[in-house]
Amino acid sequence: MPETLTAALPFMLKYQGQTVVIKYGGNAMTDEGIKQAVLSDILLLKTMGINVVLVHGGGPAINEMLDKYGKTTKFIGGLRYTDKETAELALVALSGMVNKSLVRDIQRLGGEAIGISGIDGHMIEVTQLSQELGYVGKITKINTEIIERISKTAAIPVIATAGVDENGEIYNVNADTAASRIAGELKAERFILLSDVRGLYANYPEESSFLSEITLSGIEQLIASGKIAGGMIPKLEAIQYAMQSGLNEAVLLDGRMKNSLILELFTTEGFGTLIKKDNLDLAKFDKLKH
Ligand SMILES: Nc1ncnc2c1ncn2[C@@H]1O[C@H](COP(=O)(O)OP(=O)(O)O)[C@@H](O)[C@H]1O
Ligand SMILES: CC(=O)N[C@@H](CCC(=O)OP(=O)(O)O)C(=O)O
């Protein structure tokens, strides 16, 4: 045990005082025991002096809420078609339920946390992404001031990704997209996406096609080959986009595995898929749709 701690020292020094943005996906939160373990790892990182910013999703919680109100739902290219009522119910599920339960759990573990949504402090400013998707927001600006203010205290900022437009209208925003933009704006040292999959596969779900590392160009080729489906599309597109605005590395990590965060950050072995920048012309991602 003492040796393990000593071996972790260079990594602790590397990340101390740095910003690490963690996106916790709703599908990775379904096991209560694992969720508590993930939150206690996150609290450990904060206690070590790392600026942890927790951005969460909650797709399954939104589904449950919509079910309760007898509303049907559909996804187009990995994004939920959102009418006005769905945008309101998504806000209740994400900001009211998922966000507050994460804050409460971190506090129960002995830490401090402050839960906010993209509406608070105009953190996530949006316009409508497309007529076809209804109230789904395209991010126009991220105001990081409120995150930075919380980060300076002992509290972990816990962010629900609703967005607001210039008229005060509320929009549903994909959590991967928002988290990537936040990581880019904060110039995060690391951006980690905790999901319900080990990482990225060239030919999902064939285990032998697991990729421990890939570059932006590699991702572009995979997307073009049609091997990426569902929620993985906005996830990868969001990472590509954020790398334009300062993000250097992103890691897709299994959020269903205990201590995956600690192993990823504090050991030499990588556990998920590391996504690195390469010489790909980033300017062309300006035209990405979200
Ligand atoms: N090539 C691929 N590699 C890994 N996962 C993939 C791939 N193509 C599609 N997926 C799907 O993407 C899912 C992760 O995205 P998503 O469900 O949106 O996660 P989250 O809710 O954590 O944001 C995986 O569970 C998997 O079903
Ligand atoms: C526009 C859009 O699709 N918004 C997402 C927001 C939640 C989310 O992204 O949650 P996960 O990270 O758990 O998938 C949705 O409605 O499901």
From TrEMBL:
The keyword Acyltransferase does not apply. One of its GO terms (cellular component) is cytoplasm. Substrate binds at residues 58-59, 80, 172. Its EC number is 2.7.2.8. InterPro entries: AceGlu_kinase-like_sf, AcgluKinase_fam, ArgB, Asp/Glu/Uridylate_kinase, NAGK-C. It holds the Pfam family AA_kinase. The record marks 23, 235 as: Transition state stabilizer. It is found in: Cytoplasm. It catalyses: N-acetyl-L-glutamate + ATP = N-acetyl-L-glutamyl 5-phosphate + ADP. It comes from the Bacteria. It is an enzyme of class 2 (transferase). Keywords: Amino-acid biosynthesis, Arginine biosynthesis, ATP-binding, Cytoplasm, Kinase, Nucleotide-binding, Transferase. One of its GO terms (molecular function) is acetylglutamate kinase activity. GO terms for biological process: L-arginine biosynthetic process via ornithine. CDD domains: AAK_NAGK-C. Pathway: Amino-acid biosynthesis; L-arginine biosynthesis; N(2)-acetyl-L-ornithine from L-glutamate: step 2/4. Residues 19-246 form the Aspartate/glutamate/uridylate kinase domain. Belongs to the acetylglutamate kinase family. ArgB subfamily. Catalyzes the ATP-dependent phosphorylation of N-acetyl-L-glutamate. This is Acetylglutamate kinase. The gene is argB.
